[in-house]
């Protein structure tokens, strides 16, 4: 167990109820832990409920230990609790998760749409079903959760939403499905920030670069190892992000300190959006016929 503790005030989210989708692993787990360590009641949910239950037990123990190590008051602690098993692709399951949260914890002030993912596949080999699976998970799933939270609670009480996307400024070779879905989430966020302004709902995105999570990289198998070998040296920061570096941006957006921020995307990527990343190799031949005159030394 690490002795990590949040930089934010320990009671920042006291009396707040938060929902973090995919909160049982990786980035979502780090976000859930930080929110609960700052006083929130955090509901986590995903398809694998057992995984969420285990994560909740571990996080609650870690927070208690952290409080005693750092001399913090135990009564300031929030806690992580587990909602029903939910696939965000399934609208009914999402409606049920939101209903359960409001029934049991009486409000839903903060929502983090973190659940999502993809697999590595070149566009020409990708089936329509595979494309749709990723778009439905990331884009449609995020829409389902936002809309259910709004209809059932935030329309009448206000709220604050953060959607996790992915650094895809230069496209996403071998992940066309995810690149398209995340760009969709960012545009949907801008639209919702305007439609839901009158209800006092703020909504923003955090766009991570590459974050080291065991769960995330296991998902890719050997393709994940290759990715690490190839991409790591080309990152400007020469390292990946930690999950906590994503979480602190989320906490800032969920706090009053960002009260004039809505419809925005906060990149947490160590500057990699402005740097070429060799996501695919392109052969050293002339691919684009020249129009006009180009000297020999201007070509490979
Ligand atoms: C720059 C990178 C930084 C980012 C890092 C992260 O995000 S880390 C976070 C990483 N964490 C995560 O990504 C976690 C969450 N990710 C997931 O759960 C999955 O990746 C998911 C989103 C596809 C959903 O999966 P699911 O099981 O619910 O989907 P399903 O069973 O409904 O399948 C639908 C169809 O998709 C196709 N297809 C599927 N796999 C492959 C493949 N490898 N190859 C080719 N095709 C594949 C296949 O056609 C399949 O149909 P079939 O042929 O079986 O009839
Ligand atoms: N790691 C990275 O480098 C980056 C990650 N991201 C994104 O951040 C988020 C978290 O990723 P990370 O923590 O690394 O990886 P994880 O694989 O640990 O997280 C993905 C989470 O989403 C949940 N999930 C997936 N599909 C569904 C679904 N249909 N319904 C409900 N929950 C679902 C999973 O739980 P379960 O399987 O139980 O359903 C899991 O907890 C993802 O959206 C990811 O794409 C973005 C940029 C970079």
From TrEMBL:
<keyword id="KW-0597">Phosphoprotein</keyword>
<keyword id="KW-0275">Fatty acid biosynthesis</keyword>
<dbReference type="Pfam" id="PF13561">
    <property type="entry name" value="adh_short_C2"/>
</dbReference>
<keyword id="KW-0444">Lipid biosynthesis</keyword>
<keyword id="KW-0276">Fatty acid metabolism</keyword>
<dbReference type="InterPro" id="IPR036291">
    <property type="entry name" value="NAD(P)-bd_dom_sf"/>
</dbReference>
<dbReference type="GO" id="GO:0006633">
    <property type="term" value="P:fatty acid biosynthetic process"/>
</dbReference>
<protein>
    <recommendedName>
        <fullName>Peroxisomal trans-2-enoyl-CoA reductase</fullName>
        <ecNumber>1.3.1.38</ecNumber>
    </recommendedName>
</protein>
<keyword id="KW-0443">Lipid metabolism</keyword>
<keyword id="KW-0521">NADP</keyword>
<comment type="pathway">
    <text>Lipid metabolism.</text>
</comment>
<comment type="function">
    <text>Participates in chain elongation of fatty acids. Catalyzes the reduction of trans-2-enoyl-CoAs of varying chain lengths from 6:1 to 16:1, having maximum activity with 10:1 CoA. Has no 2,4-dienoyl-CoA reductase activity.</text>
</comment>
<dbReference type="GO" id="GO:0019166">
    <property type="term" value="F:trans-2-enoyl-CoA reductase (NADPH) activity"/>
</dbReference>
<dbReference type="InterPro" id="IPR052388">
    <property type="entry name" value="Peroxisomal_t2-enoyl-CoA_red"/>
</dbReference>
<dbReference type="GO" id="GO:0005777">
    <property type="term" value="C:peroxisome"/>
</dbReference>
<dbReference type="InterPro" id="IPR002347">
    <property type="entry name" value="SDR_fam"/>
</dbReference>
<keyword id="KW-0560">Oxidoreductase</keyword>
<keyword id="KW-0576">Peroxisome</keyword>
<comment type="subunit">
    <text>Interacts with PEX5, probably required to target it into peroxisomes.</text>
</comment>
């Amino acid at each position: 167990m690490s002795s990590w503790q949040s930089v934010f005030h320990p009671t920042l989210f006291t009396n707040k109820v938060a929902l973090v989708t995919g909160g049982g692993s990786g980035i979502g787990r780090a976000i859930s832990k930080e929110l609960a360590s700052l006083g929130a009641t955090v509901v986590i949910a995903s398809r694998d409920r057992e995984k969420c239950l285990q994560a909740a037990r571990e996080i609650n123990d870690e927070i208690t230990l952290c409080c005693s190590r750092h001399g913090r008051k135990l009564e300031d602690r929030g806690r992580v609790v587990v909602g029903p098993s939910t696939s965000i692709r399934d609208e009914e399951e999402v409606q049920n998760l939101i209903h359960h949260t409001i029934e049991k914890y009486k409000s839903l002030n903060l929502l983090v749409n973190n659940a999502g993912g993809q697999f590595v596949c070149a566009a020409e080999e990708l089936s329509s079903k595979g494309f749709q699976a990723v778009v439905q998970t990331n884009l449609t799933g995020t829409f389902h959760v936002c809309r259910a939270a709004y209809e059932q609670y935030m329309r009448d009480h206000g709220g604050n939403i953060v959607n996790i996307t992915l650094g895809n400024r230069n496209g996403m070779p071998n992940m066309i499905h995810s690149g398209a879905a995340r760009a969709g989430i960012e545009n949907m966020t801008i639209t919702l920030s305007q439609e839901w302004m009158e209800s006092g709902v703020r909504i923003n995105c955090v766009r991570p670069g590459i974050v080291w999570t065991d769960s995330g990289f296991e998902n890719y198998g050997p393709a994940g190892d290759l990715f690490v070998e190839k991409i790591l040296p080309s990152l400007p920061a020469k390292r990946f992000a930690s999950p906590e570096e994503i979480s602190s941006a989320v906490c800032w957006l969920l706090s009053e300190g960002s009260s004039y921020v809505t419809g925005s995307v906060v990149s947490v990527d160590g500057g990699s959006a402005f740097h070429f990343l060799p996501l695919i190799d392109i052969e050293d031949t002339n691919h684009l016929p020249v129009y006009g005159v180009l000297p020999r030394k201007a070509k490979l």
